[in-house]
Amino acid sequence: MTKPVWRDGLTGLAMAGLILPESVAYAEIAGLAPGRALAAAIAGGLAYVLVGRSRFAVVSPTSSAAAILAATLASLSATGPAREGLATVLVGMTGLIFLLLSLLRLGSLAGFVSRPVLRGFAFGLAITIIVRQLPAIAGIAAPSGTIFTVLGSLGMRVAEWHPASCLLGVATLALLLALRRAPQVPGALIVLALAIALGAAVNLPAHGIATAGPVGLGWPDSTWPSSTTAFARLVQLAAPIALILFAESWGTMRTLALRHGDTLSADRELAALGAANLASALVQGMPVGAGFSAGSANEAAGATSRWAATAASLALLAMALFASGWIARIPQPMLAAIVIAALTHALTPGPLLHLFRIRRDHWVAMAAVAGVLAFGVLNGMLLAVLLSIMHLLYELANPSISELGQLGDGHEFVDLARHVDAHPVPGVAIYRPNGQLVFANAETVLGAIARRARASTARVIVLSLEESNDLDSTAIEVVAEFAQSMDKAGKHVILARAHDRVRDVLAAAGCDVLAEGSTFSVAQAARRAAEQVGG
Hints:
The chain is mainly α. It has 22 helices and 8 strands. The chain has helices at residues 3-30, 34-51, 63-76, 80-103, 115-138, 147-156, 163-179, 187-201, 228-260, 266-282, 292-300, 307-322, 324-327, 332-343, 350-358, 362-375, 377-397, 442-455, 473-488, 500-508, 512-517, 522-534, and strands at 59-60, 289-290, 401-407, 413-415, 422-423, 428-433, 460-464, 492-496. Strands 3, 4, 5, 6, 7 and 8 form a 6-stranded mixed β-sheet that branches. A two-stranded antiparallel sheet has the order 1-2. α1 packs across α14, α2 packs antiparallel against α12 (307-322) and α5 runs antiparallel to α17. It is elongated and about 95 Å long. The model has no long low-confidence stretch (mean pLDDT 87).
């Protein structure tokens, strides 16, 4: 075996030390047995390695998917074996959704959830999960309800906090954060070893400290939904899980790939995630994806190939088979601290502050944060998707309009409002919609330009279509109506920067005069307009 393979094997062992306690904690977030999380990390991780191409991705249960799964199962009001069966069906449907999207080559759909919305969602989700881990550190039962209910309960029950649990949780968190200063040190593996050693040496329950409990692999007692109505409802609920998993996973994979010059296909990664979730469903596991914390840790540990992720899955299998008794003794406060430490990277306000600095999309991101905190994970995710679509539609329906002027005597025409050294062409008004003309905005944009044109003294109106490489039927009709209305107002219209496809579709629609009179540049249109004004 070559040296890089040996190094990847050691990296995989360190990753297993991170994935194991995180998976157990994520199973608790989802309200499922820890064995389901381990089975998901093993089966899903190995299935991804066979199909996927990211050398850094570590496919396992993620905090976001666990939180959404918990909210989804809560909305179904199922308990016992019925709840276990619904969870498995949801995981399987998530995998099928991934495979369907891959077959249809719809990997680009990830772009419909904007990065600001994802950042806001991740920030709100991190706060939500961290707050829900605080009762485990305090050593008290976690109340149900929103995070505000949890915080209120913590504040009212300070006298019930368990000092030893608090001390253990805070010390573990401090140790994990301190070990981050040395990326080459496997901090999670060290903490896991300490947790197992402490659980083996001390009877923690006798001292009031809760432990992880049984973690072995097994088949939970499940009953399956039988009606088509129930399956249709589950498909609707699986869609948000698939969406957040792919957005999170693709964001992680693409970021790490770009950092190292690797190339990835979104459609192939969709298929890989589909295979991973179907494998997880077969072993009655949880939804799996490539989480940012695990992928970043794998990169920092020096992974050079997918063998690191393979070694991590195999190490988890060995631990589950031969060390489940030790794992069951891990203190709950230490598990909670490991989850909190893994999510602290998402609490960095830098990405959100950057949006405020550039004054772009900051309110959309903050609305996503508020949605998760106020309405919960599932509704917050749906709100985040809705915000992305609404933001896209608003930008599409409301492009800005620039009036262009000439720089000196050259061929460059720029926005008069932004360049004081530019000047208008006498008798000519040049307008440019700063977005593609489509059915959703054509009437609004050209109506605004028409009002400005009528109020000007210009005799020739130049309409620059450089942002529109094609026109749909509505846009064609509106452009023709605009030209007719300007003609009735005694103003001639020239189309500038008209692409070949625009000319072709105008000619096919019977607008031959507009098509033949259009130009390939604004400078050419301005010269022709000046000649008409002079004539």
